[in-house]
Structure formats: C-alpha cells, structure tokens
Amino acid sequence: MTPGTPDRGLGMGTLDMGMSVRLESLRHFEPRRDAAWQRLRAVQPAAYARSRNHLDGAATGLSPYITHGVLSLPEVLGAVLAGPGDAARLEVQHKLVYELGWRAYFQHVRARRGEAILQSLHPGLLPDEAYAPQVPDDVRQARTGVPVIDQAVRSLYACGHLHNHARLWLASYLVHLRKVHWRAGADWLIGHLLDGDVASNHLSWQWVAATGSHKPYLFNADNVARFAPPSWHSPGTPLDTDYATLEAVARDRAAMPVVAPTDDGVIEPPCSRRPPPQAGFTALADAPDRLAGDLAGRDVWLVHPWSLGRRPEALPAQAVPVGAVIDELHPQAWRDARWAFVAGLMEELGAARWHGSAADWSAALRTARSVHLVDDLHLGPAVQALLPPGPGAPAWFRHDPPALFAPVSADCASFSKWWAAATRGLQHAAQLPGLAATFCAHAGGPNVDTTLALPFDQVDGPIGSGRATWAADPLTDRPGSRLRHR
Ligand SMILES: Cc1cc2nc3c(=O)[nH]c(=O)nc-3n(C[C@H](O)[C@H](O)[C@H](O)COP(=O)(O)OP(=O)(O)OC[C@H]3O[C@@H](n4cnc5c(N)ncnc54)[C@H](O)[C@@H]3O)c2cc1C
Predict the structure, then answer these.
(1) Cα–ligand 1 centroid distance for 63 (angstroms)
(2) Pfam family of this protein, just one (predicted)?
(3) Residues of the chain falling short of pLDDT 70
(4) Are 264 and 281 found together in one domain?
C-alpha cells in the first residue's frame, strides 16, 4: 500500500477547531457557500464547450454543491449568463446547458420510475446473473495494472470527485471487461463521491451498461490517450484494441483477466451510513427530549443533506434551522469526507446537527409550531411518516426546489426526447422558465446588489423583462408560490 494514502483509516475527516478540516477532498471542495460561488464565477462557457471532455479541461467542478442543494440549476445558469461579454446570449443548445439538462433529465426519470431505477431498466448485453455482484479488490485498491483505472480510483479517493470521462471509463471497464454488475459498481462509486446522487449515478451506470440505453459505452486506449494526461495512458493493456474487439468482449460472458495486479495499491476509505463522531451530530436517541424542548412552539427549517442552500423564500423569518440526518434516508454508506462536507455546510447555515430514525425525528418535531423542508427525490416516502397528521401536530410545509427546465409530463425513455420537450421553441438559455424566478435576484451570488439583472433587452424571446416575469412561479403560474402545504 502506498504510504500517505488520503483518507487512511479513521484519521480522516476530523472536524475540530470550528470545522477546520484536514482532508485533501475538502481542500478541493470546501463546505462553504462562498467557495461554491467562487467556482461558479470562474466558469467559462466557451472554454467549457471546447474542452469539457478533457481531464484537464474547463469542467466546472460544481457537482458537490449542486447535489447538496447549495446551488440550484437556475442559480448556476443565471450566474453564467450574467458573466462578461455576450454570455447573456448563450444558446439553449450550448454544451453547458445541455449537461445541466442531463442532470434534470435523470431527476425526471427517477421522479417517474422511483425505486425501479435501482434495477436494470431493460435487459442489457448479457443477463443480470452473468455479472459479478461485487467490485473486485484489485479495482477497489487501484492495483489492476491498467493505468487509466488505477489512476481513476486514486483520484476518486483523493478528491471525492471524478471527471465525467473518468467515470465513464471506470464504469465501462468494470461492467464490460470485468463483468461486474452495474448496480454493484454504482453502489460502490456513490459512496466515495461528494456529489453522489442516486439519479445521476445509477442511471449513468445503466447508460454505460446498456440497460438504460441501447448500446454499451465502450472506450479504448486511444480514447484515453486523447483526453487524459500521460500517466493515465494504457498502451499494451486489453484496452489497446479496436472497438469491434471491445464489443465482442462486452458480449462474451468471460471476464477479462486482471492484467498485472500490482502490490502498491491504496486503502479504500471507509464508508458508513451514519455520520462519524467527528462530524458533530448528536444522536436523538441519546437526548430524547432535548430537541423537542428546544423546538417547542417554534417554526423549524429542517436542513437535510440535499438542501444546504439559501433559506426558502417562504420560510417564516424566525424559523430555526435544524441539521437533520434521518437514518432511513441513507441506504448508501458515505465516506467520512462527505459527512464532513455536509456537516460544514450545515454549520454555516447555523443549524445544530442531529441524527436519528424517522421515529426519533417524529417525536422531536411534534412540539414545533411548523416544520418546513425543501423537497428532494432522495427524501422518498420515509419523510411522509415524519409528521403524521393529528390533533396538535405541527403544520407541515414542503417547498419545491427551484427548477430550471419546464416540467415534462410525458415519460421520456431517452434524453433526446426529454430535451426536445423541455426546450421546445427556445433559442436562448435565458428563455428557460427557471431563470425568470431566480435569475435577477441571485445572478451575482450572495451579498450582491440584487438590482444587477440580466440585460434581457439584449435577448429576443418571450422573457422581455426580467422583473416583470420574475415574481411569478413559472411552473405553477401562482405568483411567488413555491409552497405546498400537506
Ligand atoms: C458512471 C457515472 C456516475 C455518475 N455519478 C454522478 C453522481 O453521483 N452525481 C452527479 O452529480 N453526477 C454524476 N455523474 C455525471 C457527471 O459525471 C458529473 O455530474 C460531473 O462529472 C460533475 O463534474 P462537474 O461539476 O465538473 O461537471 P460539469 O461538466 O462542469 O457539468 C456541470 C454540471 O452539470 C451536471 N452534469 C454534467 N454532466 C452530467 C451528466 N453526464 N449527467 C448528469 N449531470 C451532469 C452536473 O450537475 C454538473 O455539476 C456520473 C456520470 C457517470 C458516467
């Protein structure tokens, strides 16, 4: 094993001295809103479109903040359109808008199919049982002897993030060459990603495996040489071949033998379904009445791991934020670095951090006057059980997160169908409905003059004046309303 491997053992992710964190991953992705906005302001759409597929290209690195609700898609695109030059005239077909569309599309599929996305959506190249149920140790320890794979795993563990192209390579290698079931790969990868999102992750794996698309994603050593730095290049490995050969391998039940397993691998960071002690969460079970006492008669904002952004506009001014991890909502284990990332963002919002079962939460919240949360698909049905209606039960508000694209009611089996429906009739990105709701207010990030508005007069199309349409909720046509009262 290589000495100094990041996240080695339990020494990782220490949150002490006011959340100072000794983690390489958090040096890259700091758990602060202004760090997210700093990245956002650095986005260069033209360079992004040119170089996004290169490992050293101008990808945004925004995904951990987007997954955890620190930045919404309208905030991201709004800030980009407020950039210099003719950024405001970005076409809706621009590569960056398109990639944001992939995220929205995967959410669309998960909203429609629910838990069914955790199973193969349709048969792939081989029957499910032809694939192994576990990711092999040589891959987990980055000692396959195939440089592109070992580098990807090292990079994943070191940063808690992986470039999209590297995710594709890793998934394709595991499924089509090593014959690992896509679900095993997806469950393993998501635990190590700071941006781990069930819809984007599991559906991307299905896309690679051809259980969610109609052809497998395959790659060879030439592709790696074109898009990755030299240390990733993999000449002389089984990837050093043509696509016809790779396709034949993918359709064969036999797994590719390990090339030359090396001994100098890395230790896989541990993952857990509960926050580690150093993340500073108090177990509700250890202090059963304390939180209920603190919240008695108060308006409560339940700050869960997927809504770590700005306060919902409709929140009562005095609402007290409470950082909430609800055990039933964490079927996937996360590495300590992700727990630390979430804890840091909760701390920034002034939210004391608690964790417990849905039953513990139900007991703790019953004394509150009202409970608010921002919806997310990760919440699932378990959240419904938190506050059973009844005499004296607190009022229960679920706020919709801001959406960038118009809702598509048809069940779209392919991204292209969804994209056509979501962008029909639009030429400029500024015409997307979600921008009318948030763009003018937040285009410059936190603490900016909110009079800074998109120069809409430069943009042709239905949104003639940002201010005129901004107050209305484009999804419901109810002015300013994003609130659902259950
Ligand atoms: C096997 C596999 C697993 C993945 N797992 C996840 C995951 O758990 N969480 C996650 O957010 N993304 C996932 N992706 C999608 C994509 O790889 C990441 O969103 C992207 O690499 C994040 O880096 P970035 O912010 O620099 O992306 P950028 O290229 O800068 O894109 C900007 C934003 O657009 C969205 N986006 C870009 N590409 C995609 C895409 N292909 N699919 C969905 N959204 C996209 C993301 O929100 C991203 O932050 C996965 C892709 C693959 C192939």
Answers:
(1) 6
(2) FAD_binding_7
(3) 1-27, 437-486
(4) no
